[in-house]
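Blinded run. Sample ID left blank on purpose so nobody reads anything into the name before looking at the predicted structure. Input follows.
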Amino acid sequence: MSEVIVVTVNEELQKLFSWIKLRDRKAFETLYSQTNRKLYGLIMKIVTDRDIAAELLQEGYLKVWFAADRSPTTYPWAWMCQLMRNLAIDHVRQHGRHHPIFEDTDILPEVGKEDETDAAAHLAVLNRCVFLLAQEKRQAIKLAYIHGYSHEEIVERLARPLGTVKSWIRRGLKELKRCMDT
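Blinded prediction complete.
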């Protein structure tokens, strides 16, 4: 009887990162081919401009290549998502928003079966918990943490007092934490 070995996507990415740290170009190409579509989708949810998203994706992969030796080896997928998200938010903060209408979409890209790692499962739970928030809390949190708006910009955008916006964000984050812990 042959033994079945199950390798998670996270373990595969960890192996790729260990090779990338040694400057293995083939491993980097494999990493890119396995992750670029989802990371591009993540960036697009923030900047909404295809050309800019493509540039930010390329910049992100350059950072992955040059920072691979400093990247956390436990959850490389989560690290890459955070890196790309930060690049996109930084771009929005520096160059302004590209869409005037707030879209009520999922906070994170859809998770496929091939990505069923601990990090991907965590992201799916986060999306579910965000969906359970009241509309105003969800909207304020998305504007702040996904689109990079300041409190003052959210106040202007939602036409609500500063105290109300801060309260929605604070209470919404507490609800998210409770939901994520259950």
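Unblinding after everyone has recorded impressions. The CA atoms of residues 47 and 96 lie 9 Å apart.
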